[in-house]
Design brief:
The complex is a heterotrimer of chains A (409), B (220) and C (615). Chain A has helices at 95-99, 104-112, 119-134, 140-168, 172-193, 215-238, 240-246, 254-260, 264-268, 276-279, 300-327, 373-381, 393-400, 404-408, and strands at residues 11-18, 21-28, 31-36, 55-59, 71-76, 81-87, 202-203, 206-207, 341-349, 352-361, 364-371. Chain A has 409 residues and is an alpha+beta fold. Helix content of chain C is 70%, strand content 3%. Chain C contains 26 helices and four strands. Chain C starts with a helix and ends with a helix. Classes of the chains: A alpha+beta (409), B alpha/beta (220), C mainly alpha (615).
């Protein structure tokens, strides 16, 4: 991908082919702008580091723990990481190709399973792309349900990151507590939708069904969670052995993140205020108030603090959305016309913004492209080791919170 | 650090009694789809092609089912969700040794890894049953594979299997691993001989635990 | 017998012949030395007064006998190695000459004869080891000359026995320690050893290690028997502890095999110096038993180290001859191809790393026991230094294990890192014999102590062996009822345990599978640890002492620099000073004839004025 700039404030989202022609899409002043893309310059392969002390450690694709398959080639002299390169592509499943020829609503099943831990965001982006292509809009109640599931998913992802950071720092009780919270959120999603990852409920045109949980009970659960989280956050940040590993680790300078077009908490931790819910509000976010949390330091602690802030923000958004849902009723789904069209849809996944391009031909998908946040942010990972040692690897990787499935598709 | 200890103790015990006791499935749990009645159904109702109709008999291949609920919604008198947990009978009594489990991601979407990681959280706490996750396949007895097998992951999967000492077992976790599911990849069965299939997209942690216990029973 | 040693000087015909004759001579040395040490015949070779500095003779008493035997054993092994390798006639001849003059130095009873032999040894070291090694030896020679001058001024005699009767001022001891430190390798005068070992060709490094015997003998004979004061003992403790620690630390960072072994020699010199310090302190305090404990430990250590180091250097030379590689970085996986060398270096490594039940463990045990007797000393400073030295030696022992694991593991174990040419070499008789000796040195400790004790009885006034060997085959530090060690039984029981365990293990079916590289297809030889990575934690933790810096240059190369503390604070400033001074002096060499004539005129006038004034 090219790393060019289109003028002040433009951010490259993705490059793909439209009608056989290579195009590049930029996020520019609250809009998505597509221009014909120049051919990407050939980047020469990096030579291995010379030196008597250097040896190469291939870490992956079968890594030490229950992790997804990605390989890191670490060139090191012993402890400090002299150079790291990320080799993705082990999990390329060809999901975009799978979408071609499917019905628009069957396509939602595939879209959800591109990056399984962000199913709701990917399904929402896909559904919005289809709706925009066909010129329909989901009913307000359906949009509110989409917000509820998206925020629950964001809470689960952020809790996962915090639990993994605590586990790497060997804080057993903190790990257990964050895992308990995350399990509660997943069970909540299952109670609402029948699937722990809220799959099978978001379709183009709306949502399939109302959530099956009493909303008052949900509000009580949220209040308890909010109080617990405040206390856990205070103790987590006050634990010296944890904070020590996160502060100053994996520093990403702001210019670097801008040059690579980073998104999500990775970018917000380096001071860049980018959030799809705020730049190009979609769905019910147009009616909800939202605050974008940023930190300046750019290290792992900044990314963790951004996630703590977003957890509180998500609880607040959930309260608002639940309030609306309780007071009104309405349609849940509109029918999709058998028309043709092409459009972008986007959503803010917990990892960052995901942008989907869908071309429909008479109700079936002719072409689809997913510009995932993981693709952009994985490129930043190898630059996050300027002065760190091998034992900081786990902290930095978890602070990024990325999934190789999203990058490989 | 003492504050953490106090906080942990205050929470009390949340661990499930499974498999020694029956477990109440949580609200919204979908175990698997049962065929409860005969009658004409269209095979195209299933996005993964799990339903086959032969001479009026409807068969559902559970290894291909992603539990989307399309068939239940369209033909409620022929398909229904079965929403209780089964206990792994007799495994608990026969189990004498602990097992070490090695996980390999052959091409999953990331959700199965979350569910496997959930096995070590205080709700399920598989370490009380003697099930441990290990980083080295040389220490492993059970190989958990998630996701269909992509071309680049074929060799690493085979290498992991080759390096595990006998006796060993393979558990395919998730519909993608059992049959390829919606990803279009070949299932793990095309590369290794699978001992236990745990379908689901993704399967819930209790289902994965059930699968591991069955594999332990097979190893003993 | 001594004439036989002179023969290799003439046998420049071929290296093999020279080696054979030298081996015969060394065997003779061993015989003479052992009989002298055991209290038998003490031969005297009277050289008359042809040297012009009083009567001189070659006298072999008990102490000299011990060191003569050690020289003979190690020199014989190296000579046999020369026979096997058959290269480098000059080096073989130099080896013969070196052994000859070391024997003369050990036997000398006249101070000036000792000095002459010492300088001759220095010349040989320079010829074998290069000018850096030679330069420091010159410094040592200068200090020795000054010390002898002061002693002569005090006693008006050059006879060593006369010196032993009279005392000597402290400055003499300092000069003597400086002199022997350059040969033996005490920090900060240790530079000759690693430099010499590293730049010596072929078996030259092994020859250099034979020369150590002269240095140790000098320390024993001059510093100990001249009754050094308490503060010299303290100085030896401090210097020895620092040397031991720095020596092994620098050894860990070295990649060149011979330089590594050079620093290991420095480390063991430190340990021997510590034990000698305890002996000196005991003697100064009038505690004969303590003096005996320290001296016995030091002598045991010198013997074990001598055998092991020579074995290691011969093995390293054979590895070099077989593969053409001198550095650890490119070696690997040689265990199958060179099994005898692997076994020899293994025995040497275990001895030098003080692993039971080998000889190195026995000697380090004795050193620690001697240090533990520190509480018997009257002075508080001495007691404190004993404790600190013991702590430093414990740290050294741990680092030593790390260092030798690195040396042995990366040379002989694992898959080969690079394709190495293998040349066939002659049968390794030297390695086999010396290796067997090293292997059983621990088990034979009681007999060894018997020999050493009788040899040291002249210096100490009593035979410590009777006190050290409590029951047959059981040893203790010279103080009774303090502690026991039974290395002979250890040497029998430990292998028996291993065999028993193997017998009970039972047969299981074994399936071989490739090494796990996290599922990737990288070849193992490329992704293995490098030797420098193995020692990296030490380099990072102690980067202050090592001046360790690492950076990525130009994004494509990793540069690592290590500047040793002694280099930075001692050698480089001294070199700069010397070069500066010589640059100053060079200005007087203007090359102009008239300036030189002016110098001569000035000197003539000065002499004409001064000589009558002095008369």
């Amino acid at each position: 991908m090219t790393m060019t700039r289109l003028g002040e404030g433009a951010r490259l989202v993705t490059t793909h082919r439209r009608g056989g022609e290579p195009v590049a899409t930029y996020a520019y002043r609250g809009q998505l702008v597509t221009v014909p893309a120049p051919p990407a310059p050939a980047v020469p392969a990096a030579l291995p580091l010379q030196g008597q002390d250097v040896f190469t450690l291939p870490y992956g694709p079968v890594r030490s723990g229950v992790f997804e398959a990605v390989q890191f080639v670490i060139e090191t002299g012993g402890e400090d990481v002299s150079r790291l390169s990320t080799r993705l592509g082990f999990k390329h499943r060809g999901m975009e190709a799978r979408l071609r020829g499917l019905d628009a609503d069957r396509g939602a099943y595939v879209a959800e399973r591109i990056a399984g831990i962000a199913s709701v965001a990917y399904a929402t982006a896909y559904a919005q792309a289809v709706e925009r292509a066909l010129g329909v809009e989901a009913p307000p109640r359906a949009q509110r349900w989409r917000v509820v599931y998206a925020e629950l998913e964001r809470i689960a992802n952020h809790l996962d990151v915090l639990a993994k950071e605590a586990e790497t720092a060997a804080l057993a009780v903190a790990t257990a507590r964050f895992n308990i919270h995350k399990e509660n959120v997943l069970r909540l999603q299952a109670a609402f939708t029948g699937s722990r990852f809220a799959r099978g409920v978001i379709v183009p045109g709306g949502v399939r069904a109302d959530g099956r949980v009493d909303l008052d009970a949900l509000l009580r659960v949220l209040d308890a969670f909010d109080g617990d989280l405040r206390h856990d956050r205070r103790m987590f940040l006050a634990t010296g052995s944890q904070a020590d590993r996160l502060v100053g680790t994996g520093v990403l300078p702001r210019e670097l993140v801008e040059r690579f077009g980073g998104v999500g908490p990775v970018a917000r931790g380096s001071g860049i205020s980018t959030d799809a819910r705020h730049e190009r509000p979609y769905g019910d976010y147009r009616r909800l108030g939202l605050e974008v949390i940023t930190e300046e330091a750019g290290d792992a602690m900044a990314r963790v603090l951004v996630r703590f802030g977003e957890l509180s923000e998500s609880v607040r958004i959930l309260r608002q959305a639940i309030d609306h849902l309780r007071r009104r009723n309405g349609e849940l789904r509109v029918a999709l016309p058998d028309a043709s069209g092409a459009a972008y849809g986007w959503a803010e996944a917990p990892q960052g913004e995901v942008v989907v391009w869908v071309e429909l031909d008479g109700g079936t998908i002719a072409d689809a492209h997913f510009a995932t946040p993981d693709t952009r942010n994985w490129a930043l990972f190898e630059h996050a080791f300027p002065s760190d040692v091998l034992t900081d690897f786990a902290f930095i990787e978890h602070s990024f919170g990325l999934t190789p499935a999203g990058a490989d598709r | 650090m003492l504050e953490w200890v106090y906080r942990g103790l205050r929470r009390g015990r949340v661990t499930t009694g499974y498999p020694h006791r029956d477990e109440e499935p949580f609200l919204g749990f979908r175990g698997h789809v049962d065929v409860i009645g005969d009658g004409p159904v269209s095979e195209s109702v299933c996005p993964t092609g799990a339903i086959t109709v032969q001479a009026g008999d409807v068969a559902l291949d559970r290894r291909r089912c992603i539990m989307c609920g399309e068939c239940v919604a369209r033909y409620p008198e022929r398909f229904a969700f079965h929403s209780t947990y089964e206990t792994a009978e007799g495994v608990v009594r026969e189990r004498r040794r602990s097992v070490h489990v090695r996980h390999v991601d052959a091409g999953s979407d990331g959700a199965e890894e979350w569910e496997i990681q959930a096995l070590t959280n205080p709700y399920y706490d598989v370490q009380r049953l003697g099930i441990f996750f290990t980083a080295s396949p040389r220490h492993a007895d059970i190989l958990l594979v998630t996701g269909g097998v992509t071309e680049p992951m074929r060799e690493p999967l085979l290498r992991t299997w080759a390096v595990m000492p006998a006796p060993k077992a393979v558990v395919a976790v998730g519909t993608d691993a059992c049959s390829g599911g919606l990803s279009g990849l070949p299932g793990v069965g095309s590369v290794l001989d699978v001992d236990v299939h745990v379908p689901g997209s993704p399967p819930s942690p209790i289902a994965i635990l059930h699968g591991i216990l069955l594999a332990m029973k097979g190893l003993a | 017998m001594i004439a036989l040693v002179a023969a290799p000087l003439c046998a420049l015909v071929s290296a093999r012949l020279s080696g054979a004759v030298a081996a015969l001579g060394c065997a003779g040395l061993v015989a003479v030395g052992l009989t002298a040490a055991l209290g038998g015949a003490q031969p005297v070779l009277d050289l008359g007064s042809w040297l012009g500095f009083g009567a001189s003779a070659l006298r072999i008493d008990g102490l000299a006998g011990i060191f003569l035997a050690l020289t003979g054993v190690t020199g014989c092994a190296v000579s046999v190695a020369y026979v096997e390798r058959g290269l480098h006639r000059l080096d073989a001849a130099l080896h013969g000459v070196l052994v000859l003059f070391v024997a003369v130095a050990i036997g000398a009873d006249n101070g000036f004869l000792f000095f002459l032999a010492w300088e001759a040894v220095g010349v040989c070291v320079y010829l074998i080891g290069g000018y850096f090694a030679g330069g420091l030896t010159k410094l040592g020679g200068g200090a020795l000359l000054a010390a002898i001058g002061l002693l002569y001024g005090q006693t008006h005699s050059l006879d060593v026995a006369v010196w032993a009767q009279a005392g000597a001022p402290g400055i003499v001891f300092v000069l003597l320690i400086c002199a022997f430190a350059t040969k033996v390798g005490l920090v900060p005068l240790h530079g000759a050893l690693p430099a010499g070992y590293g730049s010596a060709r072929g078996l030259g490094a092994a020859s250099l290690s034979v020369a150590l015997c002269a240095g140790y003998y000098g320390l024993w004979r001059f510093v100990f028997s001249l009754r050094a004061p308490v503060w010299i003992g303290d100085l030896l403790l401090i210097a020895g502890a620092i040397t031991a620690f720095l020596g092994i630390l620098y050894a860990i960072t070295r990649d060149d095999l011979r330089r590594f072994l050079g620093f290991s020699t420095v480390e063991h010199a430190g340990i021997a110096a510590v034990a000698l310090g305890v002996g000196v302190l005991g003697q100064a305090a009038g505690n004969r038993t303590l003096a005996a404990a320290g001296l016995l430990a030091a002598t045991l250590h010198v013997v074990a180290h001598g055998v092991a180091k020579t074995l290691a250097l011969i093995a390293v030379d054979r590895v070099d001859g077989a593969t053409g590689e001198r550095g650890l970085d490119r070696l690997g996986g040689l265990g199958r191809v060179l099994p005898v060398e692997a076994g020899a270096l293994g025995v040497a490594s275990l001895t030098l790393a003080a692993v039971p039940p080998l000889g190195g463990f026995v000697s380090e045990w004795f050193v620690f026991e001697a240090l533990l007797q520190g509480f018997r000393l009257p002075g508080l400073l001495s007691r404190l230094l004993c404790a600190l030295a013991a702590a430093a030696l414990a740290l050294t022992a741990g680092l030593g294990l790390l260092a030798f694991a690195k040396l042995f593991g990366f040379s002989f174990l694992g898959p080969p890192r690079t394709l190495l040419a293998r040349r066939r070499l002659a049968r390794p008789a030297s390695l086999v014999t010396l290796g067997t000796l090293g292997l059983v040195l621990g088990a034979l400790a009681p007999w060894e102590i018997h020999v050493l004790g009788s040899g040291l009885s002249g210096l100490l006034g009593f035979d410590p062996a009777r006190a050290a060997i409590t029951h047959p085959l059981t040893l203790g530090p010279v103080f009774r009822n303090f502690s026991v060690l039974a290395p002979t039984w250890l040497a029998l029981v430990l292998p028996a345990f291993a065999l028993l365990a193997a017998a009970f293990a039972g047969r299981r079916p074994v399936r071989r599978a490739p090494v796990w590289v996290t599922g990737s297809d990288a070849p193992l030889a490329l992704v293995q640890y490098r030797p420098s990575a193995y020692s990296n934690p030490m380099r990072v933790v102690l980067r202050g002492l090592l001046g360790f810096r690492r950076s990525v240059v130009d994004g494509r190369e990793l540069q690592t620099t290590i500047v040793l503390v002694t280099d930075r604070f001692v050698y480089r400033p001294a070199t700069r000073l010397a070069l500066g001074a010589s640059a100053l002096v060079r200005r007087t060499q203007s090359g102009s004839l008239s300036t030189y004539l002016t110098y001569m005129l000035a000197v003539l006038v000065l002499v004409l004025v001064l000589v009558p004034a002095l008369n």
